[in-house]
Input
Amino acid sequence: MSDPQSVTVTDTTGDDLAQSTSDASLRRTEARSAEIEAQIAKDPSGFRVMTGDRPTGNLHLGHYFGSLANRVRIQDAGVETYILIADYQVITDRDGTGPIHERVLGMLADYLAIGLDPARTTIYAHSAVPALNQLLLPFLSLVTDAELRRNPTVKAELDATGDRPMSGLLLTYPVHQAADILFCKANLVPVGKDQLPHLEQTRVVARRFDERYGRVDPARPVFPQAEALLSKASTVLGLDGTKMSKTKGNVIEIGMDADTTAKLIRKAVTDSDRHITYDPANRPEVSNLLMLASLCTGRDPVEIADAIGDGGGGGLKKLVTEAVNEFFAPIRARRVELAADPGHLLDVLRRGNAHANEVGDATLAEVRAAMNMVY
Output
C-alpha cells in the first residue's frame, strides 16, 4: 500500500479538462465510442453504465430524445445500468429543495413509463446512499481549489446562476459527479460532447486515488477509468426555437395530456414562408418541428416537409401534434397508472436504494482498506 506522503501527483488536470473537447480528442472519443457500441452488441457483460438526472422539474421531450430513449436501448442491450435521481444536486444552485418528494416520484414515474425496468436497472436517490456521498471526503483530497475553479463544468454552472455567490457544493460539483460514477465502479457513462470535461475529472480522481492511496488487489486499481458513450441523439429545441429548458417554459413534458400538447404546439414559433422545407441553418424553428415529427414517426424530415408542401405553419403544427400525441399516448397512459400508485413508486425506489447501498458499502470498504482505515 502506498504512503500518501510519498506519491507525487504529476497529471495536469487543467490541461486534461481543456483538451477533453479539442477536435483531436473528440475524434478519438467518437472512434472509441463506436468501438464500445460494437462491443456491447457482441457482449454487454463487460460494461456497467451510470447516468442520472436532477429532479428540478418534470422531464420533457428534450430529455426523452436526448438521453432517456438511449438508456432504455442500453438496458435492453443487456448492459448493467445504474440511474441516479440526484436529489442532493438540486441544492447545488438553489436555496431550497422545493417540492422534492413529488418531483422524485414524478421522475420515477417517467422512467418506468418509458420502459426502464427496475428488475434490470437500478434506480436510486442520492440522499439514500451514504457510502456514495462519503466518497467525497477522500476524493476532495485529490483535487485543488484552483483545479475546481478552472473546471468548465463549474464555470458553466456558475454562469448559469447569475449573481449568486459560489457555494461549496457548486465548487465541488465535479467531485460529487465523480463519486456518483465511481461508487458503483461504472466504466461507461453516456454523455454529450459538452459533458466530457466532468467525465475527465472523474478519470483524474480515479487515477490519483490509485497513485496516492494504492490498491487492495495489486492486480487492479480500486476504481476503473470510466469511458464516454457519446450520444447520437438529435437535439430537440424548445417551442420558441431556443434550447429546450424548463426555466424558459418552452417544453412539452412527457406526462402532458394531448390537449395541452396541442395548445403548446399551436403557439410554437415558425416563420412567414408557407412552403415548408427542412433547412436547419436558415429555418431553425420550422426545421426543429420537422425533426420532432421525424423522431416520433421515424420518417425523414425532408420527406415530411415535402408532404406538407405549401400547407404552411398550420399544416406543420397539425402534423407535429398528431405525431407527438400518437407516439407518447402509450407512455402517458402508463404514466397515469404509475402516478396513481405512489406506494408502488416508493417500493421501486426503496429496492433500488437498497441495492445501491449494497454496492456502495462494498466500494467504501475497499476504499477504507486501500487507505489503511479499517479499525
Residues 342-370 form the longest helix (29 residues).
